[in-house]
Inverse folding.
């Protein structure tokens, strides 16, 4: 389970810098590994598919 803060940072990384988001390198180091996992999982899923909890 990921924290709300990790999910928020992942949302901004997925948004992209061009669109007002963030880079993975700009995420605090303590959160970066989980944020990276969230981003990788989101990018590997087809559009519209939501993860099961």
């Amino acid at each position: 389970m990921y924290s709300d803060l990790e999910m928020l940072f992942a949302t901004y990384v997925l948004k992209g810098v061009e669109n007002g988001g963030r880079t993975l390198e700009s995420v605090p180091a303590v959160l970066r590994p989980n944020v990276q996992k969230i981003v990788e999982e989101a990018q590997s899923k087809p559009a519209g598919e939501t993860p099961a909890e």
User: Anything to note?
Assistant: The helical segments are 4-15, 32-44. The chain has a mean pLDDT of 90. The CA atoms of residues 42 and 49 lie 9 Å apart. DSSP finds two helices and no strands in the chain.
